[in-house]
Amino acid sequence: MEDVIVGKIYFLLVRVKIKYMEVQILRRESTGLGAVNTFTDMETLAKFEIMDGAPVRGECIPIRLFLGAYDLTPTMKDINRKFSVRYYLNLVLLDEEERRYYKQHVC
């Protein structure tokens, strides 16, 4: 796979004192039939440090993540109601008081 994730993060208004930011690629696999017999496994495939330090208002951080180094499979949703694989992009912000803020996107 030679796909690339491209994007930008803009800081229009900074109220939280951010000290660290990262992007994670997560894979969630679900197997089983019904709500009782379902087994779900969440695995972090990659972590990318985007920023270390406080951002300035109006700052723009470009992001380019090359996916060729990772063993990714197609997203499969409810194959015969027994199996599914989903990928997530997770943006994690850490402030000076060690609180974490998340933004998750389903791929």
TrEMBL record:
GO terms for biological process: intracellular protein transport. It holds the Pfam family Vps26. InterPro entries: Arrestin-like_C, Vps26-related. Signal peptide: none annotated. Belongs to the VPS26 family. This is Vacuolar protein sorting-associated protein 26. It comes from Hydatigena taeniaeformis. The lineage of its organism: Eukaryota, Metazoa, Spiralia, Lophotrochozoa, Platyhelminthes.
